[in-house]
Amino acid sequence: MKKIILSSLVVLGLSTAAFAQAATDFVAVDTDANGGISLAEAQVAWPDLTEDQFKAADVDASGELSADEYTALMAAAPAN
User: Fold this and answer.
1) May I ask which residue range the UniProt record assigns to the signal sequence (predicted)?
2) Which candidate, 75, 50, 51, 45, places its Cα nearest to that of 63?
3) CATH assignment of 2-76?
4) Distances (CA, A) of 33 to 15, 17, 38
5) Predicted local distance difference test score (pLDDT) of residue 72
6) Which pLDDT value is given to residue 37?
7) What does the domain layout of the chain look like in residue ranges?
8) Are 16 and 78 in contact (CB under 8 A)?
9) Contact at 8 Å (CB) between 70 and 6?
10) Half-sphere exposure of 43 (CA within 13 A, CB side)
């Protein structure tokens, strides 16, 4: 699963700027505590995150990032 997400992010040209403030955990980003991270919640933590980048990370196309998808996204993010 991580290879798919990493490949998608590379293809979409995910920039380091999108993860400049990415020092937060899943619970902190999931502000409505519903167990998933919406695009709006993700963009609060990473204002430069695009909808295409978010969709690439949303492997099951649920419209939200699960904890596993979030973890894979963070693992694929370029180091600051």
Assistant:
1) 1-22
2) 51
3) 1.10.238.10
4) 28, 26, 11
5) 87
6) 97
7) 2-76
8) yes
9) no
10) 11
Cβ count within 10 A of residue 77: 17
| Whole-number Å distance between alpha carbons of 61 and 56 | 9
Is 40 buried (19+), middle (13-18) or exposed (0-12) by CB count in 10 A?
A: exposed
Place of tokens 């990032």: 65
Question: The pTM is what?
Answer: 0.69
Distance of CA 2 to CAs 32, 34, 47, 74, Å?
A: 26, 23, 23, 10
Q: Is the pLDDT of residue 6 over 70?
A: no
Secondary structure (3-state) at 1: coil
